Amino acid sequence: MQTRSILKSAMKLSTFFSALLLLTHANVVQAHGDEDHSKKPNKAAAKPNTSPNAKPSLLDATAAQRLSDGSLFVPKIVQRQLALRTLLTEQAELPNTIELNGKIIADPNAGGRVQASQPGRLEAGPTGLPSLGQRVSKGQVLAYLRPVMSSLDRGNSQSILADIDSQLSIAERKVQRYEQLSEALPKATVEAARFDYEALKKRKTAVEASLSKSEALIAPVSGIISVANAVTGQVLDAKETLFEIIDPNRLMVEALAYDPILTADIANATATWQQQKISASANAPASLSLNFVGGGQQMREQAIPLLFRVSGKPTPVAVGQAIKVMIQTKRLTTGFAVPNSAVMKLTGGESAVWVHTEAERFVQRKVVAHSLDAERVAIVSGIKEDERVVTAGGSLLAQVK
Questions:
Q1: Which InterPro entries match (predicted)?
Q2: Looking at the predicted structure, is the pLDDT value of residue 158 above 60?
Q3: Among 279, 266, 344, 274, residue whose Cα is nearest residue 308
Q4: Which domains does the chain have, with CATH numbers?
């Protein structure tokens, strides 16, 4: 009997727990019955913080970013990858600079020109005709010019030569007779006959030379052949240029100035042009140091020509090459000297530089700058002293979005 009581009590307890479990499950189903569980809940998109003073997230800490105020956040690792270089600005008194158009010319005391003095046919010299770039010495025979005469001129010359031959024969016999009678004739008469005979011989030699002798074309100076317009057998007119010789170590620069006062206000001058790099697609600026020689006092093409002499080491330039002449005057202005690579042109034609304001922040500043020399520019406004201006890699910073 006792065993049956225990079994009944256990069955009642099991029924109670089952009912309690069903009741709990029903409440849960009722709480979530109106919700759609077929889609995943949307999460709010994280908006990047682009405020000037905001710190980049850990995910963007290794990428350059453009902030809302236009400045750039560039991590140190990116600065090294872009090879950025900066220069601490220092205010100084800098000379005013004027830019003029100029060209390379040959030094008239170290260059020469070989021209035909008369019509003729060109013949090669002892070592052949010189070629471009060949070095020649002063007095060297470059070619021969054989005179070319018309039929009428040649007939007249031959007629003159025949007349001289007859006169020469008469003079020769006359000298022989006078020498035989030298004891009976005055000495002056014998000498006069002999002088006439010698004069006729020289006259005959000169006429024969005009008919057949070639003229030697000689190099007037030592240097390098820069112009060669000669071919063997070429028929030339008088004053036709065959060769031009220059000394590459002695060149000059001619510039045109539109202010006559400038000739008395030149302190220093340099020349610059774009030189094509062999190993890169960009052009590299090259420069020459110039010494002022003098300026003309007569206008030419509404300008005054200024003459400069190239100094320093020889530079590979060509005569006639167009260049920019940077003239530093004696007047001074206050500014900051920076390399040419620091200043870039904006789309509107304005000049700007990148300033390194903080460890990982760069700001673009519009500036007013003018050329100082072939390698530097002078910034007169837009930056302050003791600021770090980017001198290398500024074009790469402008591409950061």
A1: MdtA-like_C (IPR058627), MFP_Cation_Efflux (IPR051909), RND_pump_MFP (IPR006143)
A2: yes
A3: 266
A4: 76-105+247-397 (2.40.30.170), 112-246 (2.40.50.100)
